[in-house]
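Exercise 4. Each item below gives a protein and its sequence. For each, produce the structure-token representation.

Item: Related to heterokaryon incompatibility protein (Phialocephala subalpina).
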Amino acid sequence: MSQYHYSPLSLGPNSIRLLRLLPHEDRNAPIQCQLFDYSLQESGERMHLYDTLSYVWGDSSNPRSIYIDEHDLPVTENLYAALLHLRNFSLERIIWIDAICINQENTEEKGQQIQYMAKIYGQANRVLVWLGNAADDSDQALDEIRAAGGKATNSLNNKAIRSAILALLQRKWFRRIWVLQEVATARHILIMCGPTEIDGYAFCLGIDSLKEVYESRAELQSLIRSVTYLIRGAIFRPNYVMSRTGGVPQAICTLGELIDMYHTHEAALLHDKVYALLGMSGMSSDDLSKANLLPNYEVEWEELLQRLIKFLLCEKISVETWSGKEIAVIKSKGCILGRISSVQNIISLDGRQSVDVIFKNTSEQLEYGEEQGAHWTLQPPAKPIRDGDLICLLQGASRPTIIRLRKDHFVVIMIAASPLETGQTESEYIKWPKLFARDFLLVWDWENSPKLQDSGEYDALVRTDDWVTEHSKTEVEGYLNKATRIWNVAMILDDLEEYEKAEERLPEAIEGYEIAFGQEHLHLPKGQYGRTPLSWAAGNGYDIVVNVLLKKDSINPNLKDSQSGRAPLSWAINNGHEVVVKLLLETGKVEVDSKDEDGRTPLWWAAYSGYEVIVKLLLETSKVEVDSKDNDGRTPLWWAAYSGYEVIVKLLLETSKVEVDSKDENGRTPLWWAAQNGHEVVVKLLLETSKVEVNSKDKYSETLLFRATQNGHEAVVKLLHKYIN
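Answer:
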């Protein structure tokens, strides 16, 4: 008999095929069917009188034949068993079945029909769930579930029945990702296993009553919960739930939440882990087109995963993916918002989980007080949230990401959390930070592999099975990159005020830099919280390290530490490292006049420390405010005069940009301090400007002549008398 060949769909938009399953009195007779085109009209007042089948395709190695208009069409053994069960002895049945009603050889048609699937299942008379043929006492299991739903069971102590229930719940249907959309849009669900049938809502009631049978198995509990949550809602859905765009008008969840919840479910094609969830997101085809997520099986998987992540987070974010792998590496600037302080394991009837959150005020990046708590409810992700998980916001993202710390990176627990806070709206409880200071390396693993999830080191994770050997680095680069990753983690721990944990990680980072740069005995920072690798290297005069770091695109030469607000240039100047100062200035990217938290500029530090060459280098940039005051009203000239740095005083005066007689918070001028400390040459330089008030008094009414006389500075006293007279 000849093979069946599909004809193109002929009814235009909203056109699908339906299967007419012909009756036969003989159960063992060949299955005869017809296919016909059907148009899914926009929602009206009539019901569409067809059923849909929700099932697992199963093994395709030993196909069985059904006949469409006398032509052979191979189907899997599991689908064949379902059709035998559904075939009536005298009445035909109208059913939509994906493997038959979609031409699986036509990728363009598959992509088009997938967009209708939410509509197909939502407008069907019933969704028939086929769990498979009877086996492992499945009939007893379903009878027990039915009885439990009616509170009429006393058999939980029966080991055979408990085993039968567990075996039923571990069937592949509960792990298949497409079933989620199929039951999420359904209005009436009938569950079948062999000859035994049970209403979907009754099934959920029974499963809820039998939690003790499976609650000790976390993975199984998550799978069952995710499906029963959707089945339970079927009887409450209106007859016509579809929007004009073919999606669900009121989304089950955001696409990010759906991905977080269900990415560990199984699919024959990796693409389906995304496409199977689109119908539940409430996104129209226009929305999907703008997001570049319209179903298209010709798009490579790694490209699709990148598009998804950029849609969920930010288009400009860096994402690396690989063919055939359910894993992505995300690199982005970001900041820590806080941490999960406690997790309630009880899931509410609406499917949400409660967590308590503590927000952190990190480097004044957040507009909270010092610390603020909140109570969130979230859709529980496939990877359970734990106490101590961190909440970060990546630059450009509109929703926070929940992450978990590893040795030198973070793993993603929730990619785009959509929390509800008790009594408040989203805009009321989150005020996004203005500064994204940290470099985050995130690994989002969908493969549900404990080995991968618990891997401590990033390199061990991404090199598993040698699937990224093409991205391998030289040994030196490897040490440098690992050291930088560890240091980045340490800075994030500093932001969380976990200073001891941060400091514990730095020796390994320093060791990596020593190997990478061929240097020994590099200084280990102690008690210097939040310092970047560049600030550490600049502050210690490691010009080779500074030179290499400045060539890395990810390095921000102006990033300040979280303890004192000082940038790398400030640290280099503080210790007089002229070569490093030149390297930083030569980049043309350094903010030469950047202030620390005390209002001190690089020029302030150079004048304070007496580094004449560095003062000259800074002045030559013409980008410094020569007369900038710190928080105590002290200028670079003030410090140079106070300390008697004659050359620096002269350099500053030659700019003609200084207020020679500016006063500090105590009303004391540079001349006052030069006289007080007996710096004769400096006093003369200041007096010669003719811009100083020789009789100036501080707020205690003490004149500079009085202070010079009291301290025995005779030469200074003579100079002052000359100008006073």
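Check: Residues 244-249, 362-369, 423-429, 464-472 have pLDDT under 50 and may be disordered.
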